[in-house]
Structures are given as structure tokens and as C-alpha cells.
Amino acid sequence: MAFLSGQRASREDQRPKATFAELFTPKLVTVLREGYGLPQLRADAIAGLTVAIVALPLSMAIAIASGVNPAQGLFTAIVGGFLISAFGGSRFQIGGPAGAFIVLVAATVHEHGVDGLLLATFMAGIMLVVIGYLRIGAYIKYIPYPVTVGFTAGIAVIIFASQLRDMFGISLPGGEPGEIIPKVTALWGARVSVTPAAIGVALLTVIVILGLKRVRPSWPGMLIAIAAASAVTAFFALPVETIATRYGGIPRTLPFPQLPVFSTDLALAVLPDAVSFALLGAIESLLSAVVADGMTGRRHRSNCELVAQGFANIGSAIFGGMTATGTIARTATNVRAGAHGPVSGMLHALFLLLFMLVAAPLAGYIPLAALAGLLAVVAWNMVEKDAFRALLRSSGGDALVLLVTFALVVFRDLTEGIVVGFLLGSVLFIDRMAKAVAIEAQVPAVVEDVADSTDRALYQPSEAADPDVVIYRISGAFFFGAASTVGAVLDRIADQRKAFILDCSAVPFIDSTAANALEMAAAKSARAGVRFVIAGASPQVRRMLYAHHVRPPQVRFRSSVEKAVEQVHREVAARKAEAA
């Protein structure tokens, strides 16, 4: 059966691969080809308006938390959101500024200024386009689940900490530190400047958002909460900072497009930030696309989506925006609002542009404490609390990966948390897989229960006791993690002057390290005069062994152990006949 399975897999490998056009045709084209009329446009318009209402305050809040002007959040949502929907590989993806980038963007702005941020965003866009066209997107899914949960929870903690200043209305004349412990220490030292009005506005925002989510979940709770907090602040003339008092309001039009300021020194300085933007953007966008697939039963094109993310970041940087990516919450809102396809995402961007053109002066009244309360709710929702608890209970290895990733993201560096978490998860996986590989001696076993006249054992008792035949079986993926353990067993067997049959029918995969271990065992068997027969190897396994010189006459291959035993007995009988 294993041999037949290998043949089927071989035939599947020979099927024609998807063409370039099939892999990189935007979902917008697919939807339009299916037929697009007024009913579909109406559904997309309603969904786009719904998402725009959610994205309007959120985009400004994320931009402020990232250390840039709130207008840059709107520019990102408009330009980046439009391009992601127009060129993406997902029907329902909504792009724009994301909370996950707050830490990275804030650090980049702090070290390299806005010019450095724009250049890093532009470079990240180019990297994402290259990653997509090289079809590397499929590998993003191999990031372990504990890493994504720990990473998301860590970002949520940092986002919440970044909002404490505005939430409590604290004055920090010397500026706010970037790292979490110095930040909290500085805020605690300035606690005498706490503004009660700011606390009240933040609490009002949180209460309205959570209350409407409970009693009127279909209403745009975030926008209503921001509007209510702004009205209360203006009516009572509360001593709370607003967008107008800190930033002077927002413009009513998009800026004139221009390339980011470029210099070799600046490009080299922001290169690590650009790599982090590209990596996180790929992870966030594909995770969001997977969530949309799960909600709709559709299937996204991962590499096409990454190309669109690249175009979006290039466009966002040209129009003065920040890093754009697919956003899970807004994408889920788009699906629940009844979107038909990518047109809803494009309309969401156009609605945001319309809001900016018409209502830009009103944005100046928005209190920063209200936006801080909004982001506090976002941070709380980001933490996958059930998943976090489940991973802590599931196994020691998963809990270790989760906690290490979480701690590094919060107290060290976001990229370092992802990389170390991924490497630690990979090592633990290798250890588990290595322990799952087994090599054991075979004992007599009956293949099936048949009539007495035809009953036949796969390994006859006489064969098991035959001093000229020893049969061992390897089970599991034979790779470098198990090569040393299995190789030691093979070395002990190979120095015995017997015919050695190695059953590989339960080996679905073998790598070069394992093949090299078999090559050394085969060479040792040949020097000792031991016949080495490999039985049941699939075509893929056999190709790898041939590539490492595990081939006749040093090693013989047979399709089953039974045929290998018959072959050995024929050779033994022939030798005895010659000797006689």
C-alpha cells in the first residue's frame, strides 16, 4: 500500500502546476468575470460604508499611537486600503494601518523620523512584491501557533501601555520613553499631573463601545463613542487635549504624491525596520485572509495577496502614509456586513476619502483620551485569551514558546520575539518528530485471517530464527533529528554477518542526513559481506537514496519484505549449491 501511495503521489507531482496568471490574477478580476451587477454593487456599497465608519476613528487612533500625525493613518487607509482590495488575492481583505505595527512604527519614527518611516515603508513594499512573485508566501504559514498567540498578546500589552499617557492626561515634558518599563516608570513619576477629565472621557468611550457591542452589536460603536466623547468634551469645555490642540487638525485632501527622501545612509539605517515591516505585514495579511476564508468558505491566493500588500505600502509611502496591511477586525466586519467582493474594500477607501473631504474640521474636536480608550478596547480584543490559557495547559513545550515570545515582544523587541519563538518552536518540533521515529526488529506476523489452507505468515517463524536473515522496520519521517539514533542501531546490525532487510514502507520522507546514515550502514555491510536489502521504499525515498549512492550493487531494493526474504533465500541457496 505504501508503494502504491508513493505511485499516486508521483502522479500528482506530474500534474501541471498553476500558471503565473492563475496565481497572480487579482480576485477583483475573478469577481468581475463571474458577473457583477447592481445587486452586487449595492451589497458592496453597504459593506464598504460600514467598514469605513469603523476604520475612520481607528485609523487616526493607530497613527497617533504610532507617533505620527492622525492624517497619516487616513492616508494609509485610503491609498493602502484601495490598492490591497484592487490587486489582492482575497475577496474580502480590508487593508489599512494595523495595531500590530504601532510598536515598530513608533520605534522607527523615534530613531529615524518621518522620512525614515516613509523610506522603510517603501522598501518593505518592494520586499513584499519580491516575496510574492518568488512565491514564498506559502511558507509564512509555518510560523507556530504559540508564536502568533504570544506575539499578538505582547503587542496588545505594549499598545495598552502606550495609551496610558493620553488615557490619564499625564504631562511628560521630557518626552515618553519607548521601552515599556522606563515608560511605566516615567508615567508613575509624573502621576501628580493626572487629569481627571481625561480619565472620565476615556472611561466614557470604553463604556459606550462595550455597551453598544452588548445591546446593539450592529451599530458602529467606535464611531458613536468617539462622537459622544467629542461632544461632551466640547460642550463642557473639558481640559483635555484634542487632535486640534496637538496636531492642528487634519487636511481635507490627499497630499501630492512624491517619492520618499532617499540616501544610502538612511536606507541602510532603516533596512532592519523595513524587513520587520515586510515580515509582520506578510504574517498579518495572510492571517487575516485565512480568517476571511474560514468565514466565507472561499480561498485566497497568498502570493497574489503579498504582491498587493507590496503595492499598497509603496503607494502609502508615496502619499505620505505609514505601513499598511490586512486587518482582521475590519475584514471580519466586511464579511459580516454582506460584502460580495473586493469592490467593498475599494469603496471603503473612497468613503474614507469623502469623510476626510467633508468632515475634516470636525476631527479636530476628537479628544486624545477618547482615542486612547478606543485603543485600550482594541488591545483587550487582540489578546486571544482562550488560546493563551489553552496553550499554557496543553504542553510544556507550547507554553515555553508562548511565554518566551510574549516576554521578548513586551520587554525586548518585536522581531526578536518572532525569530526566537520560531526557532524555539522549530527545535521543539524537531525533538518531537525525532522521538516519533522508531526502528525495531520484526517478529512473525500474519497479514490477514484467511482459510487454513491458504494461511500464510508474512514473516515465517523459520525466517525469524534464520541466522542468515534479520529484518528491521523504520517507522516515521526519517530525517536529521533521528538520523544519529537510527544510524547507531544500523551500525550495530551491519557488523553482523547476516542478510539485513530494512523495511522502509512506513517511511513517508527521508532527508539527506538520514540518507547519508543509510549510505554508511550499507558501506559497512558491504565490507562485512552482509547482504543489504531495502524493502517497500516509495519512489520519493528511493530517489533520495539513489542521489546519495545508496544503490545496487551495494544495496538491493524490493517492493515488499516478503519479496526481499525470497530474494535472500534464493541467493543463500545458490551459494550453497555452488559450494557443494
From TrEMBL:
Top-level taxon of the source organism: Bacteria
Domain STAS: from-to ranges: 459-568
Bilayer topology term: Multi-pass membrane protein
Source taxonomy: Bacteria, Pseudomonadati, Pseudomonadota, Alphaproteobacteria, Hyphomicrobiales
A Gene Ontology cellular-component term: membrane
Family matches, as InterPro entries: SLC26A/SulP_dom, SLC26A/SulP_fam, STAS_dom, STAS_dom_sf
Localisation per UniProt entry: Membrane
GO biological process: transmembrane transport
Protein name: Sulfate permease, SulP family
Organism of provenance: Mesorhizobium australicum
TM region(s), chain numbering: 45-65, 71-87, 116-136, 143-164, 192-212, 219-238, 274-294, 306-329, 349-378, 399-424, 470-490
Claim: Cell inner membrane is one of the keywords in the record: no
Keywords: Membrane, Transmembrane, Transmembrane helix
Primary subcellular site in the record, as a coarse category: membrane
